[in-house]
Amino acid sequence: MVKEEIQSNKLETEYVRNLNCNYVRVALKEKPQESRYQYCILNRGGIRFLLPCSLRYIDGAAFLYYDISSTQNIAQLFEGKTLGREWMRDFLWGMERMQQELSRYLMEGRNVIWSPEYIYQDLEKKDFYFMYVPYCRKDTGFRQLLEFWVEHIDYEDEALVEFVYSLYEQYAEAGDACLSRQIFENFKEVEKKEKRRQRIPPTERMVEKEIVQEPEQQSAQQSAQELISRQKAAEVSEQVYADRRKGFLAFLGGRRKKTDTVSYQEILQRQVGAQILGAVGEENTYGKEENGKEDEKEGEYGRTIYLDDRKKDQVRGLYRDNGELAVRIDRLPFVIGKKKEEVDYALEDRSVSRIHARILEEDGRIYLEDLNSTNGTFKNGLRMQPYEKRRLEKDDELRFGKVEYIFQ
């Protein structure tokens, strides 16, 4: 069992496996009144887009068991990845349908747990499933979901960034009351803005505001220098992306200060404007810096490395029984599964889950973590619990479903 206490909502949770199913179970502080409406409806099951739940007793203690088999929580699934507008559309659609189901059964929406660790997705159907705790008196973690979005959204999509910013503002002012249909209406505006943006030629998108401010007759007589400036502005779009994200995070940090009156849009304009002006004003330096980098790379490529000096045991990876290297682990975290577009090493075996396990580093040590696999992850013959982490050592025997390797 993997026990974890979430600081945001103080739910005591454990990941456990029973027969052929994986569960996350929530310990209840008090013995529940099973005859109360929400427990009756939840135990009966059949509410779409909620994790299937059952009430069980172990040594007199009460637990809610949530079946998470064949799903992945979005915190793990999208670690280190970017969430685009398409993902947000799917998530909000799932969220809306879930709330409609709750209304249909006269269930209170305030008992949904919004922390990303407890929102699960079926990778095959693309459906989202939410945890519902009857008569929950804790913080349900919607702020953690917003912070998850802030950390992962695509900052090249200005409309999406503004949507998350606006929602964060609403939550800061109204709390959970902002969880209304207005969220979905606001996102429809994001879609409309993007459609309008797509009508603008790509070369004009980076300087859209500048074009609006110029007279029409002047835009028709742009000089070659202006075109060069625009080209350079496009070349630094990656840095603008980073600055936009940095500005948003700085804004959110400043929102905790009541005296802060600077808007996110102003910070965004300053960040992007400063970057574009810097690119335009440093033409000669721009070329020299790039040439300098190329010269440095050429110097690195020119050095001779003696292959005999490299020890084979320095190659970290998964090896077969005959000592053959199956895959080199050259980055961490390293995800293993059979869904090629979602993992670093794809195993074409029916016993392997789509996203099965991962190897990661924490505090300078290497760990193996099961990712809620169906047929289990094994270290030296011992099966791991869902989301359990075990430290890896050289020559450990690993098994993913039926596929075996040696870790070096």
Please explain how this structure is put together.
- The chain has about 400 residues and is α+β, with helices and mostly antiparallel strands.
- It contains 13 helices and 20 strands.
- The protein has helices at about 35-45, 75, 85-105, 140-150, 160-175, 180-200, 200-205, 210-215, 215-220, 225-235, 235-255, 265-280, 285-300, and strands at about 1-5, 10-20, 20-25, 55-60, 60-65, 70-75, 110-115, 120, 130, 315-320, 325-330, 335, 345, 355-360, 365-370, 375-380, 380-385, 390, 395-400, 405.
- Strands 11-10-20-19-16-17 form a 6-stranded antiparallel β-sheet, with no helix packed on it.
- Helix 4 (about 140-150) runs antiparallel to helix 5 (about 160-175) and helix 11 runs antiparallel to helix 12 (about 265-280).
- It is globular and about 60 Å long.
- Mean pLDDT is about 80; it is low at about 5-10, about 205-215, about 255-260, about 275-300 and about 305-310.
Number of strands: 20
Query: Helical content, roughly?
Result: 25-40%
Which structural class should the secondary elements be placed in? alpha+beta
Question: How much of the sequence is in beta strands?
Answer: 15-25%
The profile of the biggest β sheet is: 6 strands, antiparallel
Radius of gyration: 26 Å
Average pLDDT, rounded to a whole number, is: 79
Number of helices: 13
Looking across the biggest beta sheet, what order are the strands in?
11-10-20-19-16-17
Show unreliable segments.
3-9, 207-213, 255-261, 274-302, 304-312
Shape: globular
Q: End-to-end distance, in Å? A: 27 Å
